[in-house]
Amino acid sequence: MFVAHSPELDISSCAPTERKALANLQEAVRLFLEEAARKGSLNQILEESGFSRRQHTLVGPKLIHTKRITMPLTLSYAEA
């Protein structure tokens, strides 16, 4: 299983292939942004997420570090 994540918006998606996970993420982000715009909260969400407008371009925040970690889970979590 592959997980695709947009840390700026904290949106994730997954699929059995990397290509499909990325496609699912794009769809999830599109739907999220459309719904936020429909509700009138898009500008607030983008501002809180670190986006800014420069001239006529929307610029995302600069990520300074990303790291993938693996954490072992006890058997009780696997059974839940």
Lateral strand order in the biggest sheet:
1-2
Overall strand count: 4
- Gross morphology is elongated
Radius of gyration: 16 Å
The biggest sheet, with number of strands, parallel, antiparallel or mixed sense and barrel status, is: 2 strands, antiparallel
Structural class: alpha+beta
Mean pLDDT: 90
Put simply, the count of helices is 3
**Contiguous runs where pLDDT drops below 50 for at least 5 residues:** none
Classify the helix fraction into a percent range. 40-55%
- Overall number of domains: 1
Topology as a string of helices (H) and strands (E): EEHHEEH
Q: In whole angstroms, how far apart are the ends?
A: 19 Å
Query: Strand content of the residues, in percent?
Result: 15-25%
